[in-house]
Amino acid sequence: MTAWRWLALFLCLTAAGIAQERVVVRVQGLPSETATDPASLAEQKVIAAFRKAHPGVELRPADGLRIQNLNAEAATIMMIAGGIAPDVIRMQFRSSDSYIRQGIVAPLDSFLSTAPESPLATVPPQILPVIRKVGPDGERHVYGLPLQTLVSGLYYNKELFRRAGLPSRAPRDWAELLDFAHKLKELGPKVHPLFLTSGASSGFELMNLIRGAGGDALCEIGPNEWEAAFDSPEAVEAFLLYYRLTRGERLAHRQARALTMEEMESVGMLFRYVGDTVAIDPELWGFGAVPKGPGGVHGSEINAVILALYSGISDPARREAAWEYLRFVTGPEADRIRISTLVELGLAGIINPASLRQFGFEEYLVLTPPEFEREFAQALADSKPEPYGRNCNLIYQELTYPLDQMLLSPTLREAWAAGDEAAQRGEIAAILHRAARQTNERMIGHIPPETMEHRRKVALGVVLAILAAFGGVGVYLWRHFAKAAAKLGRPVSGGSPVPWLCLLPALGLTLLWNYLPLARGTAIAFFDHQIVLPSTFVGLDNFANVLFDPRFWNSLLATLQFAGWTLTLGFFVPIALAYALHLIPRQKILYRTLYYLPAVISGTAVFFLWKELFNAEGILNQILRLGGFAAEHAWTEDPRLAMLSCVIPGIWAGAGPGCLIYLAALKGIPEEQFEASEIDGAGFWSKTRHIVYPSLRTLIFINFMGAVAASFHGATNILIMTGGGPNGMTEVSSLLIFFEAFARLRFGPATAMAWIIGSLLLGFTVLQLKRLSEMEFKTAR
User: Average pLDDT, stretch 728-751?
Assistant: First the structure.
């Protein structure tokens, strides 16, 4: 072997050794290497600086699925449950308590004690209670570090303000907010004075109003003990203002999806965050603090992404590398890189003046509006952190329920029309009181002991009934199928092992993927199931709480409604379509192709397409307006049309494939039967009744069984279309179970719900199996 080959071998072995020594750290939220927007370019430079300082660390992205209408925490929980947890986890304030209480994130005290400079020195005091909390061990620890502090504010459209003759500033209080909105409304029907999001995110803007009125959504009544407080008199005033803006004087435009650049040109004001940079173009939009409410404060919200370490990291080197990454990207050096990168890109005008001063770019302060720094300082001074108490990961959704009830209340609508302010406040107070009580019970777990004892007794009876029902059904089916099997011939010798060997793979897979999870799920229903920490046995408490949860029974009603619409419309449409295509004399191939084309489109894409059609400014509403109808709201936000809007896309996409099955069956009917019936004088309905229906009866029954089962699994479609809203009108049981497990981390109650629903479907299962056992299938000759 020559010297060069020895050298090449040595270099290869050395490179392999270095590669093996590199520590891999999986990180949530790594910037895309192909992104070219300014924020991503700045983050790419931060990552490059970290890699240069730590060449032995390899960073890999660890981002799960992003699901619309579902909080980002659900993706993290699914990754952890699936055994692919990130090493560095991104938490929101509202989800921090759940992560800490479940033992998902690790304390950082040991790292902080050895850090050369305390990373907590630069953390705003409002954020310290969020990251320093009592953990599962009963001691207070620091569990994360904030990444880029954000403060909510009110942006205003400079051009629309100029046209309306308004001062170039945001409204200072609620009175000015209403006054400015009225003047913007005078510019014409195409101008929306204020934009508010609908759906699960609507609680964000509402939170600013509640705090501006002097109230709050939650209050801490003891160490790590929280209570819903959005039924206070201050909260009533905030909800009343929201109603006045949206329904009463119609000054605000609500929609679930984000505004396009074109749509933003017709919006006067909107709530957004501001951090190191402004969220939207400062040349077109000005920033102001949230208008003061009766409480005398701006009511702004302070927020940040919290970076934390996964508690399940077992390798000390990987844990140390993950900490180094966390400390670097949340530190001042990373902030300096971000700001200097934006300055180099010529974007100093969008940078917060406080950040320009901090990193020595005072010469660029002339590019920022003079009032920006003052407004930001006011917003920051009055800011409170996003709710961070027990199970607050869905606090905005909890606020959405009373908000939707208020917007849909006929009593409040009548009181508003009559100008009766006392009745308006009374109706809102009653709605909020009921909602706060349910939130305290469902989200925080405040249930009196005597109430819980009564619920356990009811749950015991229900669980025993479920066990008896399943046992009785099992015995009945065993006997019924034994009788049916006795009537069958035995084409293969009973002593031959060949049939059993053929069945073993299918039987093994069925046991592994169906019955083993079912058995584990049975156990989870009786535990306070934890992903990381040991689970605690709670007996019948999960069943007890589910049985007395109004949302569960509401979801069951929504499920029946969804199933009813799906079966009455979706099941018979393919049959009728197939029959029509079978009878048309010409262009059969063309029509069949046209009806089948929707099935070629991805199912998710179909629902996003229809969601745009059902939008407030969608084509369907535009057509209705041409016909003289009001059509002001999106179909998915109208309680009368929301469920129908979830059903129609599925029917449209599934009619083509369904009709092909029936077309094939119709082709199997001998033409001689139709010819003979015509000779005997049979008409269309007579042929349908005596020839077509008997030939398709078995296929119709089998498809009907499948359609019923599918109608109880519509969570995916509804999650895309409505997210369960408005006011839970479309929150079917399967969607609620998903929310409970992966959004609330309440796996025990979710499993209990599944068992209760399964027991309710036992009768249908018996009918299905009994009829199938009586059918005989023969091959054609």
Answer: 85
